[in-house]
Amino acid sequence: MPALLPAAAHCDGPERDGQDGTTRTPTRGSMDEQQTTITQVHDLRQAIRDGIASGAINARNDAPTIREFYRVSAEITDEEIDAAHVAELHSEFAPVLLLTLGGTVHVQSDQFDDEDAIADAARQLSEIGGEPVTVERVPDRQRQEGDFVAVRMPEGTYEAHDHDLVARFGIEVGTYRQRSAAEAAA
Questions:
Q1: Which partner from 50, 120, 158, 184 sits 20 to 30 angstroms from 44, CA to CA?
Q2: 23 pLDDT tier (thresholds 50, 70, 90)
Q3: Where are the stretches annotated Disordered (predicted)?
């Protein structure tokens, strides 16, 4: 599991110490001393949002890690931490598009625009299969065995076996059918 960044890594810049007008940059120790325990879910969600923006939080973090990193009070359950984590990462506008087949990740595109991501996925599938293919959108109600499900995911790298992460954080954005160049020409 990727490590969370230390709290000091999120300093906005130098602070005035208020005594002689000089500036200082907080050290990890001084930030830790000032950090308080999070006791409210809305404060936790804000901390997670900030962590996502800074790159400290991603889909691979779990409740115990988040609890320790943000000093979350025992009043907030692991289930509430998980719910806040999922809520903040779950978005149809997430930056990664995966094509999954039977729950298995086949290709990943970091293109934000869906059209560009599908073109990138078709290129990757062509390289994998050794022949040119096209990937065409089909209505979800016409989904057949062998069709890809496009899923938007939070930033990160995903492997074929990341079923749980896809189920937890992914948002389906369409169904796509792969066709060989010969099938497309017919």
A1: 158
A2: very low
A3: 1-33
Judging by beta carbons within 10 Å of its beta carbon (0-12, 13-18, 19+), is residue 111 exposed, middle or buried?
middle
Of the candidates 29, 40, 32, which has an alpha carbon nearest to the alpha carbon of residue 72?
40
Retrieve residue 61's tokens: 């973090």
Distance from chain centroid for Cα 21: 42
Query: Rounded distance, CA 29 to CA 42, Å?
Result: 26
Rounded Cα–Cα distance for residues 47 and 33 (Å): 17
Kindly give the residue spans of alpha helices, DSSP state H, lying in the chain: 28-34, 41-54, 63-70, 78-89, 114-129, 163-169, 181-185
What distance in Å separates the CA atoms of residue 72 and residue 58, rounded to the nearest whole number?
17
pLDDT tens readout for residues 28-38: 333 343 368 99
133, containing H or E segment: strand 133-138
**Confidence (pTM):** 0.73
The arithmetic mean of pLDDT across residues 85-96, rounded, is: 90
